[in-house]
Amino acid sequence: MIKRFDEAYSGKVFIASLPEVTEAKTVLYGMPMDWTVSFRPGSRFGPNRIREVSIGLEEYSPYLDGDLADAAVYDAGDIPLPFGNAPKSLDLIEAFVKDVVKAGKFPLGMGGEHLVTWPIIKAMHDVYGDDFVIIHLDAHTDLRDEYEGEPLSHSTPLKKAANLIGPSNCYSFGIRSGMKEEFEWAREVGYNMHQFEVVEPLKRVLPTLAGKKVYVTIDIDVLDPSAAPGTGTQEIGGISTKELLEAVHAIANAGLDIIGADLVEVSPAYDQSDMTAIAAAKILREMMIGFVK
User: Fold this and answer.
1) Distance CA 75, CA 69 (A)
2) Of 144, 177, 232, 285, which is least packed with CB atoms within 10 Å of its CB?
């Protein structure tokens, strides 16, 4: 039974969310974890702020000619994660996502740091085996084995995912930061790394993914800091919000079997204007309408 975690957040829900999960196609959920960040914490407050600013959105997308009502979204709230306990937090996320997928719902997560994507991938692997690929939009490689001796780090989720489902099943776009060894490893093992740009390389890759199940993970820092200052590890030279919308719409219109998605690393404290949370809310709206069939 999928329940709403009312005790774990303020009670606000994403705009147009259904009151009950029964009729939902999509389950939106928060993962308020920033236990392993290496620079600035605060992304545990991202999901709730995204909900709060979503009230400023229209429910209709003129880009996709669709409405949030079509996505039939149920907002389950934030998973109550034990502060500072990364292993237990990851186990709780994995168990929740398994329940959502096995209930026949589309899981759409909000982070939290990017390590929260790792237990989601484990849940997807439990259900689908190796029969899916990952589309990853990010400024950072996230291909480290560990950070300062710690294997559970927000700099490791895509390396863990690649080791689980195979490097050739992982596609990263917009990458502009990482250790030299990470880029060398990607080249050596056939990991699909696309540096700096997103839209054009993505459009070239999407036709090759026809017939495959796809999981999409977006780190908000794929955007340039001028468009999204509210994130823990800013990297200049990123894409615009218009380009990110174009990328999401390209994925939505590619006819793929999208099995789940997440958007992570919104840290409201570093953006008093809320432009980062507002951008995240709109991107999530487009994901709900475009990814959920």
Assistant:
1) 13
2) 177
285: phi then psi, degrees, rounded to nearest 5: -60, -45
Residue type, 252: A
Per residue in 153-186, pLDDT (tens digit) is 999 999 999 999 999 999 999 999 999 999 999 9
At what angle are helices 46-53 and 275-291 packed, to 10 degrees? 80
Helical (H) or strand (E) element with 275: helix 275-291
Encoded tokens for 8:
């774990």
177 bridge partner residues: 140
Cα separation, 153 vs 247, in Å, equals 27
**Class (C level, CATH) for 6-291:** alpha beta
Three-state SS annotation for 60-110: EECCCCEEHHHHCEEEEEECCCCCCCHHHHHHHHHHHHHHHHHCCCEEEEE
Which H or E run contains 53? helix 46-53
Rounded-to-integer distance, Cα 252 and Cα 247, Å: 9
